[in-house]
Amino acid sequence: MQTLPFSFVLLRFLSYSSYSSSVLFFLF
Asked: pLDDT at position 7, please?
């Protein structure tokens, strides 16, 4: 059952990464 939290964290990280990248793109 260790794969579920790990994949959730990975998904969250990818979502946050894409969000910050779009924010940076919007700013610059």
From this structure: 87
Q: Which two tokens stand for residue 18?
A: 């894409």
Q: pTM to 2 decimals?
A: 0.52
CA–CA distance, 13 with 7 (Å, rounded to integer): 10
The 10s digit of each residue's pLDDT in 1-28 is: 567 788 899 999 999 999 998 888 887 7
Cα first-last separation, the chain = 42
Question: In angstroms, rounded to a whole number, what is the distance separating the alpha carbons of residues 14 and 6?
Answer: 12
